[in-house]
Structure formats: structure tokens, C-alpha cells
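Example for tutorial group B:
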């Protein structure tokens, strides 16, 4: 009896520096190109926002994973070891930051969330919408 091999989930571990968002965008673009997904704009925007949040508000190394759901749609996961949980802030037209999660929630039609990791910390994920 043979079992089908489960494809590995593309993963990159980033140092929590100001270079992390750029490296995450490049990683996502490379993976999408390998998968034959021509439009990576929304994916790059979302991974940049999530990695920036992990860099600014999280702790420890930042892990970016790109699993695909049962329909083959990409899911972006960003892990860090911080205990804090991201929250969508109420709209504030005078604020100069704090809109990233609002944008993500609108772009992915509220198909995003946060889950605790058994080893501590959290994974913030967003499923990209189908075309």
C-alpha cells in the first residue's frame, strides 16, 4: 500500500528586522511564480502587513508559511512568539498608522484570523480570495 506524499509547505524564517517585510514579499513572489499564480500583488501586500506587525509588535523570529487549502488557494501564515493578539482597530481618520488589519480584513473578505501555537506565540493567517 502506497501513500501519497504530502507536499511540503513553503516556509521561511526571518530575523525580526526592518528587512523582514521585503524578504517576505520576495519569498511569496517566488513561490507564486513557481505555482503559476501570475497575480501576486494582494499576496505581497498581505504578507508585508502581517510581517510588519510581527516585527513591530511580536517577539522572536518571524516564520512565514504558505500552505494551500483543500481547493489549492494560498493561505498566508505569519508566526511569532509574542503573546499579544492583533486586533482590528476602529477607524480613525486622524491616525497615521494602524490600518493594516482593516485593509487585510476587507481584501480577504474577513477570511483571516489568529490561532495560538502550542509552543507559545501565535499564527496570524489570511486566505487569499479566489478570482
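The residue assignment follows.
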Amino acid at each position: 500500500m502506497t501513500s501519497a506524499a504530502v507536499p511540503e509547505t513553503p516556509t521561511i524564517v526571518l530575523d525580526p528586522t526592518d528587512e523582514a517585510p521585503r524578504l517576505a514579499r520576495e519569498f511569496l513572489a517566488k513561490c507564486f511564480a513557481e505555482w503559476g499564480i501570475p497575480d501576486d500583488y494582494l499576496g505581497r501586500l498581505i504578507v508585508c502587513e502581517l510581517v510588519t506587525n510581527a516585527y513591530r509588535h511580536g517577539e522572536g523570529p518571524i516564520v512565514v508559511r504558505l500552505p494551500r487549502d483543500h481547493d489549492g488557494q494560498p493561505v498566508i501564515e505569519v508566526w511569532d512568539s509574542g503573546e499579544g493578539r492583533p486586533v482590528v482597530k476602529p477607524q480613525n481618520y486622524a491616525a497615521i498608522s494602524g490600518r493594516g488589519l482593516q485593509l487585510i480584513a476587507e481584501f480577504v473578505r474577513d477570511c483571516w484570523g489568529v490561532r495560538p501555537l502550542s509552543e507559545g506565540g501565535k499564527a496570524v493567517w489570511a486566505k487569499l480570495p479566489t478570482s
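The beta strands are 11-14, 62-65, 75-80, 112-116, 122-127. Compare this with the pattern of hydrophobic and polar residues in the output above.
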